[in-house]
Amino acid sequence: RNYIEGLFLSSGVIRSPDKTMGEMVEVARRLRIEEKFGGYIHLKTIPEASAELIEKAGRYADRLSINVELPTDEGVKKLAPEKKPETIRLSMAKLRCKIEEKAEPTLQSRKRERFAPGGQSTQMIVGADKTSDDGILRASARLYGSYHLRRIYYSAFSPIPDSSAALPLQKPPLMREHRLYQADWLMRFYGFSQPEILAGSNDGMLDLAIDPKLAWALRNRGRFPVDVNRADREALLRVPGLGTKVVDRILQTRRHRR
Known about the structure:
Blueprint: H1 2-7, H2 17-34, E1 42-44, H3 51-60, E2 63-65, H4 73-79, H5 85-102, E3 120-126, H6 133-147, E4 151-156, H7 174-189, H8 194-197, H9 212-219, H10 233-236, H11 244-253
Helix pairs in contact: 2-3, 6-7
């Protein structure tokens, strides 16, 4: 888990951001140009890297990511003081602008320049600090709204030797990471707003025993039953067990029969 090594660096060796970023970009360049690799490349970028290197990275990679590392600024300052949340956010904003700029056809060729066609993503570690699931999802909603991210990766914290005493000694349940991914999909594809996913929860944590969609349905029994022959897409998407593909098939089928 190299993100842990990057976040909780214990060797004391600090490398130049441009040197590290330059080496990663060179690997991507060789894959694309010399090895003729046409597959998917997801490249992690460093916030302090030069604009020139970011430009090259977007030329060779399908997706770029700048990791926020932890859900809150307080967590980053406490556990990774060498990282600056303000710098990370500024870099994410610049990357968003660059992606949007390159998506527009040029005046000369009327073609779009290739630059990270898969967009931007980020990653945060879960369980390294005491942020609740509700706090994590609030941070995610802000990130999606502010930087038009394609997705957020949630990585369960894993203890490492000789780490900070501020870090927990045990890793969180892996199911917690899974539930956060499910809640994330509810926001991205199922029309759920962030506040309603955990509305009514006493501790702000997702239920590990049942998925967040079923948990929401049990707290909102008055919304059910749903008539599958008449309900709109938004209502059908909230039925536990119905995914986006099944809902689309229902809507297509009921044009011709019940």
